[in-house]
Structure formats: C-alpha cells, structure tokens
C-alpha cells in the first residue's frame, strides 16, 4: 500500500520485448516509455514550507526530461488527512492544500505536455478516508450514500454478547471490521480503520469512481496507476476464511476476487473512450502482491506486461482493449523483474537469463535516448 518515500526511476518493458525494442517506432509510447515515479511530499519544495508540492515538480521538469524520461507518475496529491501518506483520500477531485491548488495541477499538466512527456496519476479506488463526505453521509444512512461502503450487523454470540461479522483480517494488524457508534453497524476496511472500503457491488459507487477517472482525464491525465486492485472486492457470502498462516490459502475471500476482472475492464473502457476521441492511447498500471492466483493472471493480462519493482509483486500495464487476451502469465513472467527499490543499471537489476536479455535491450534503448547515461541512481535522493 505505502510505496517508497523517495522517487524511483524505472523502465517499462513491452510484451516479450524481443526484436521489437530495436525498432521502438512501431510501439505505442507506453510500451517503451521511461517512467519516473514522484512522491510529491519529498520531491521538491517550491515555497520553503518544508514539504514538496506540485509547483516544485514543475520546477524540476527540465531536469527530469534531460535524463531521458518520457512520462512521470505522481503519487497521491488529493485532499487527505494524510493518515496513510495520501492513500486515504478525502476528496478525489481536489488538490490537498499541502501540495497546491487545482490551478497548480493545470499548470503542471501543461508544462509536462509542452515538454512532450506523459502524465500518470495514482488512482486510489479501494477505499476513501473516513473523513470523506461520502463516508460521513453513509454512516448517517443519508441517500444515496447509505450503501457506498460495506456495512454489516454484528454476529450474535448469545443473548447478551455480539462480535465482529466474521474473522477477516486487515492488511494492517487487527480485524477488517470497525464499529460505528453512529450507524450501530460494523464497516469493512481492508487496510486501516481510517480507510473504509467502497462497495463496488453498488452501481452508484462504480459510476461515482468512473467520474473520478473522467475528471482527471478531462484535465489532461494520460493514464493511472491503480492502487490496491487486488482488494477491490470481497466474497459476497461473508463466510469466515480458513485458518492459515499462508497468505495464498488464508485470504481466499478477501484478495483477488474474480469481480476485479470486470471492474478493471470497465475502467479500461473509459480510457478507451477518451483515446478514441483524441487519438492518444492511455494506460492503466496495476500492481498485485503475493502469489498470483486466477484473478491476477486473468484480470491483469489484458495487454502488454512489464516489470516488478517491489519484491514479490507483479506490475501489469494494460493497453487498449483490442489487445486483451494476447498475453499469458508466462509472458508476464518474461517481462522485466526488478528488485525492491530498484537502483543502478537496468541490466544489473534484472534476474534470470530471459529477463537479463530483455533488460539489456531496454538499457540499449535508454542509451540511444540519452547517450550520456551510465547508471541513473535516484532512490533516496531529494531534489
């Protein structure tokens, strides 16, 4: 959930990345792009308040461009109480004052495009902050927000005692359920109690979150990195999960549920709609951690596949829907696998003979884009 506090420079790889890399003009921008990850809080402070901001990112775009970068991915800058470093969103359509204003974002977007670069934003759809107005209204059963979140009555033990609805465990320590004294029910949270999960079995929620995508696409975003995609659904029967210390056998009802497939396809369709209007392909990057089960190998193999930049994680980049089904898990694993907090020459961070060959081809591409490239090491660096 929480990503590195420092920005990481990493390279995306296309499907297989064989001879096609040598002739990159045949590929879309997102198939060979050099993607630069920026955590705004620690990147560049433009107003001397000790916190990085959107204007600070704008000030450093020439530097980012000069090292051969084609696209930047900015981690959450939305309005948030910052309990989880911005991954607890209070308002999806507002910039947190810590980082600037919506006008600052528009200026940043224009500056990125003026340099011929692409802009990728974090999309945090699994949960909101408990400070979000939707949650406050849902807690009071005010329509249409009553079922925007997942609410359950307590499980009865006897005539005098009740307990949580089931044994589901949060990613953070403790139960996945927290009691609301206002609503007199438990709400579900895959992560912290301050991050209640949205209810995607409610069509109104799906429409609301599609609206978030459209809002930022209208402002010029070229794509999204989708956060916590494996946690978007839980089994509708709410049965206890089997006791186990193994992630893959324990979280059978709360991780990588089959419904994730259709939801990501719906989001992909929204981006395709915009691509058809402006002729500019966009992308969705999704990350899943832990062992790959059916959902991750089916839902997230829609198009080209790339690399892993967290240990035991897989990153999937989905192209236009016309390319869905052209890849397989074997092809995913032939992509570039990078170690945790990747640094140094790409060829040194790849593992396995096939991956190493892929990485060498990609490093060759990087050398052609930036002849002065030797070894770009950015992890842990502050601008």
From TrEMBL:
<dbReference type="InterPro" id="IPR017853">
    <property type="entry name" value="GH"/>
</dbReference>
<keyword id="KW-0378">Hydrolase</keyword>
<keyword id="KW-0732">Signal</keyword>
<feature type="signal peptide">
    <location>
        <begin position="1"/>
        <end position="18"/>
    </location>
</feature>
<dbReference type="InterPro" id="IPR045857">
    <property type="entry name" value="O16G_dom_2"/>
</dbReference>
<dbReference type="GO" id="GO:0005975">
    <property type="term" value="P:carbohydrate metabolic process"/>
</dbReference>
<protein>
    <recommendedName>
        <fullName>alpha-glucosidase</fullName>
        <ecNumber>3.2.1.20</ecNumber>
    </recommendedName>
</protein>
<keyword id="KW-0325">Glycoprotein</keyword>
<comment type="similarity">
    <text>Belongs to the glycosyl hydrolase 13 family.</text>
</comment>
<dbReference type="GO" id="GO:0004558">
    <property type="term" value="F:alpha-1,4-glucosidase activity"/>
</dbReference>
<dbReference type="Pfam" id="PF00128">
    <property type="entry name" value="Alpha-amylase"/>
</dbReference>
<feature type="domain" description="Glycosyl hydrolase family 13 catalytic">
    <location>
        <begin position="37"/>
        <end position="369"/>
    </location>
</feature>
<dbReference type="InterPro" id="IPR006047">
    <property type="entry name" value="GH13_cat_dom"/>
</dbReference>
<keyword id="KW-0326">Glycosidase</keyword>
């Amino acid at each position: 959930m929480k990503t590195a506090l420092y920005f990481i420079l990493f390279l995306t790889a296309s499907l297989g990345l064989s001879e096609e890399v040598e002739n990159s003009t045949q590929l879309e921008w997102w198939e060979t792009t050099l993607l630069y990850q920026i955590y705004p809080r620690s990147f560049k402070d433009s107003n001397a308040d000790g916190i990085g901001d959107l204007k600070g990112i704008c000030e450093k775009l020439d530097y980012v461009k000069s090292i051969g970068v084609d696209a930047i991915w900015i981690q959450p800058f939305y309005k948030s109480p910052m309990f989880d470093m911005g991954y607890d969103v209070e308002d999806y359509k507002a910039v947190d004052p810590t980082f600037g204003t919506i006008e600052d974002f528009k200026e940043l977007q224009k500056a990125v495009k003026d340099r011929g670069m692409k802009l990728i934003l974090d999309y945090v759809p699994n949960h909101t902050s408990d400070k979000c107005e939707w949650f406050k209204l849902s807690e009071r059963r005010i329509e249409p927000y009553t079922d925007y979140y997942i609410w359950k009555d307590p499980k009865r033990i006897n005539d005098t005692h009740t307990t949580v609805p089931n044994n589901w465990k949060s990613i953070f320590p403790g139960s996945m359920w927290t009691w609301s004294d206002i609503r007199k029910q438990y709400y579900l949270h895959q992560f912290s109690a301050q991050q209640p999960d949205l209810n995607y079995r409610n069509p109104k929620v799906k429409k609301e979150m599609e609206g978030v995508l459209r809002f930022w696409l209208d402002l010029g975003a070229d794509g999204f990195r989708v956060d916590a995609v494996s946690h978007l659904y839980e089994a509708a029967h709410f049965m206890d999960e089997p006791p186990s210390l193994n992630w893959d056998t324990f979280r059978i009802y709360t991780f990588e549920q089959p419904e994730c497939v259709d939801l990501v396809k719906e989001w992909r369709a929204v981006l395709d709609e915009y691509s058809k209007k402006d002729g500019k392909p966009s992308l969705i990057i999704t990350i899943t951690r832990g062992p790959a089960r059916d959902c991750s190998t089916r839902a997230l193999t829609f198009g080209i596949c790339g690399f892993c930049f967290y240990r035991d994680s897989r990153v999937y980049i989905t192209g236009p829907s016309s390319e869905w089904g052209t890849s397989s898990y074997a092809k995913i694993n032939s992509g570039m696998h990078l170690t945790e907090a990747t640094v140094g020459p790409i060829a040194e961070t790849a593992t396995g003979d096939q991956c190493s060959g892929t990485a060498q081809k990609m490093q060759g591409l990087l050398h052609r884009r930036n002849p002065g490239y030797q070894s770009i090491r950015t992890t842990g660096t502050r601008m």
